[in-house]
């Protein structure tokens, strides 16, 4: 248990300086500079009728306005395209690019959509946003200020928002994604990669590194994308959304949530390296061991109470979690164990996973 508390403290320290804060106007200018003349926002969308209207409305209400918003309709079977067309008739900065067929055999859908999005854009600065991201009106300004200061690649893991109870079941996966991904620098250590929901980069850097064509057949395109920049000597800076950038990940129901996490959880477990995996394993083992003997004695119950407090502190920067998420954390961890077992089976033995009606080879 001591190791668990120590690792938790280390994780908290590592993210402390990576939480997005409101930009102070006289602290850093929001003017376009560093070669930025035009901002292109690119959104991959496959069956996103529940999300696409919200993100387009938010983008058209930004303090710093994008010059174009390109939605790549990835052969959707719902009303995604019609909703985008409605917005494009009102504002000609909104552009729809329709992909009528599945991606080529050696491409993964999201990478294929983003690759096509870049080739249909004109911006010097590219902002890739998942369709479920919900940016506050200052979001693009904050991202621009970070890019002006740091250059390279900026990525953000958004603050998670919930509307239905089942969505809370992604709690443990969220903890692991943020704290065990090794995406936050501690001292001079380089991050393992980047987060996928929000990525900012220059057009110049994108094509110098090869863009999504280099990582076209990987499920973990976000981590590989960031690593590709690092291998090419470019800076990668990762942040937490802190309310300025939120998302509601799986509005389509518990099966969508299960499928989404199963898709990449096993493959992502070792991406931060062997040492990082061992540290994360010890950390997780502390939580799981506390579940099995929490009522064994009074002293163990106090340890369980300590775990509740640790989980509460860890989760505060990540999403709108409630008291029952902390008190009944064993349910979240047991649900995650099921996800991990299924993900491992599909990754190692079936060599394929499913996502949004497509089979992906891994």
TrEMBL record:
The chain crosses the membrane at residues 265-284, 291-314, 326-349. InterPro entries: Glyco_trans_2-like, Nucleotide-diphossugar_trans. GO terms for cellular component: plasma membrane. It is found in: Cell membrane. The keyword Cytoplasm does not apply. One of its GO terms (molecular function) is glycosyltransferase activity. Keywords: Cell membrane, Glycosyltransferase, Membrane, Transferase, Transmembrane, Transmembrane helix. Residues 40-164 form the Glycosyltransferase 2-like domain. Pfam families: Glycos_transf_2. It comes from the Bacteria. The keyword Transit peptide does not apply. Its main location: membrane. This is Glycosyl transferase.
